[in-house]
Amino acid sequence: RERAGVGEGGGRGIGRDIAIGLAEAGGHGFLGVREREACQQVGEEIVAEGGQASALAADISKPEECDALVDAVLAAPPRLDILINNAGTPGYQPFDKLTMRDWERALRVNLTGAFICTKAASSRLARSRHGAIVNVSSIEAHLAETATVHYTSAKGGLEAFTRSAAVELAAREIRVNAVAPGAITVEHNANAAQRMGIDAL
Predict the structure, then answer these.
(1) Which position among 30, 92, 115, 151 bears the catalytic label?
(2) Is 151 noted as a catalytic residue in this protein?
(3) Where are the alpha helices (DSSP H) in the chain?
(4) Per-residue pLDDT at 192
């Protein structure tokens, strides 16, 4: 039970279930998410069931907040074994209405955030000698869907990043993999699709 994992984007949806799964496997989970309340709620749920979890608020698209998140994890007693990059900004926006702000935010959260967290955590993961990084991509990295060009581009980049990082970090005994879930019925997906008039789920 000394093994530790940090998952950014652990407040709801897939991230919530990942955090609970890590706790059930005996890990101490550190959940990082922008919305502190959502993160704390999941942490309290895990602790109530006898698990270990710490809620840490951070916007991982901002390097200084990401570094502070990892520093907080590294200051805790357990060693760091697992990093799960799960933060994402899904959403539907037609190409002709897509703004630079939409485009840049999708890249910052879905791709740059994973780079920032991986870079910040890699030295501590290397000390574990069996460190693992899991990047949560999307099936949309492999197929096209209406009004998701910013999201699919970012997730495609995340998978390319995963392959390259796996090659470089293998020498430090860190495994890097990605998973690509299909459509998940979570509130923000359903709301965004409804606004666009898209039957996405």
Answers:
(1) 151
(2) yes
(3) 13-24, 36-48, 63-74, 100-107, 113-128, 149-169, 187-196
(4) 56
